[in-house]
Amino acid sequence: MALVSEVARCLCILLIFALIGHTFTAHSPRKIKVNPPQNFSIVDPGYLGYLYLQWQPPVALDKKCKVEYELKYRSVGNESWKTIITKNLLYKDGFDLNKHVEGKLRTLLSKQCTNGSEVRSLWTEASYAISEKGSPKTKIEDMNCIYYNWEYLVCYWKPGITIHSDINYFMYFWHEGMDHTLQCSNYFQDKDKNIGCKVSDLESSDYKDFFICVNGSSKHETIRSSYFIFQLQNIVKPESPDYLYITVENSVDIKMKWNTPEGPIPSRCFTYEIVVREDDTSWVFGTDKNNLLKKKTLNESKDVCFFIRSKVNIYCADDGYWSEWSEEECWAGYHTPNLMFIFIVPGCLFIVFLLSILCMALDGGKPEPKLNTTEVENESNSYEETLC
Q1: Does residue 167 carry a pLDDT above 80?
Q2: 10 Å Cβ neighbour count for 307?
Q3: How far apart are the first and last CA of the chain?
């Protein structure tokens, strides 16, 4: 009898738990899922590295739900991913086509559709790589580009390691705002081979990626293409400052001024490096202004000079090249007289003086010539005719 009672109690407990579980199951919210985006791909429109990452919305999606997409992408080999949250179905960016490109994408549902919880789909992935035709040893080497005075671009390169005599290289470029890529129209050549290019008329090309491709042609083998991305404002080399002026006041204060280099670079974008020389000792200073005031460090210095160079500062670019150094300018008050005026000019005057005395002495020792009366009369008659 006790056994039956124990079994009945166990059955009651199991029945109670079953009823409670059924109640929670009936009232628990349905788990929401969302599919990943469709047809994710990386497309090359032919802009030398400016790629399109595009996709379509996921299937079986409630149109009332607001959808966002989390996009991650990188060049293969980079440790970090760039992450973008967007509502669009297209994203554009520049890539180094010397490397493979990979991306991954997933769907994000808004909280309005998920009772306040975050819902993400699984990742979908895509990749892109150019066709690597030709030996790597045929690629150009030591590509170097400088944007001179923010006006024109000059690029130089060296031929590949293993090339045939008939090979020649060609440079193409593109930046956002151009309808299509362009080939260089002004090559620098060495023995009829293109080794560089000058590109002018680059309006609205700064503060955006500037894409370059250098490829080649040969009858004997395929040439591997090389790709480059520049921000032109970061490779600017300005002109040297000019019209330098220096003075020393109160025998102590050195005042230096110069003109901002001419050209399209705004004056606020310059920084300067100044070398001040007192006799045989020099000091280096920096400033973003076009003047500098320093006190003499050597009280007995007899020679005070300075020269200067310029560069685009951190407020207008991340990097750049220093200009060439200007000519040295010295304070006129300390210039020593020119040796020409001290020795040569007086010496020449003294020699001229001696020669004059000698000539006069020689003329004084000669007898005066006798004039022919007839010649005198003829000269007189000629003079009278001229007057008439």
Answers
A1: yes
A2: 20
A3: 177
